[in-house]
Amino acid sequence: MELFAEISVLFVIATAIAILMRLLHQPLIIGHIVTGLIVGPFFFNLIRSTETLALMSEIGVAILLFTVGLHLSPSVLKQFGRVSFVTGIGQVVVTSFAGYLVCVWLGFALVPAFYIAVALAFSSTIIITKLISDKGELDVLYAKIAIGFLLVQDLIVILLLLGIPLFATEHASWMSAGQFLLTAVVLIAFVALTARIFVSKAFLFLAQSHELLFLFSIAWGVGVAALFGEFGLSLESGALIAGVALASLPARREIIARLSPLRDFFIVVFFIFLGSQLHLENIVAVIPIALALSALVLIGNPLILMALMGYLGYRKKTSFQTGLVTAQISEFSLILIALGVSLGHLASQVLSLVTLVGIITIFGSTYFILYSDKLYRFLAPLLGIFERADARESHSQRSGYEILLFGSNRIGYDFIETLVRLDKRFLVIDHNPEAVARLESAGIATEYGDASDLAFLESLDFSKTELVISTIPDAETNALIHKAVKEVNPETVVLVVAHRVKDALAHYDEGVDYVILPHFLGSKHAAEIVVRFKGDRAKYKTLREEHIDHLQLRLKIGHEHPYPESLRGM
Question: Which residues cross the membrane (predicted)?
Answer without folding.
Answer: 6-24, 29-47, 53-73, 85-108, 145-168, 180-199, 211-228, 262-280, 286-312, 324-344, 350-370
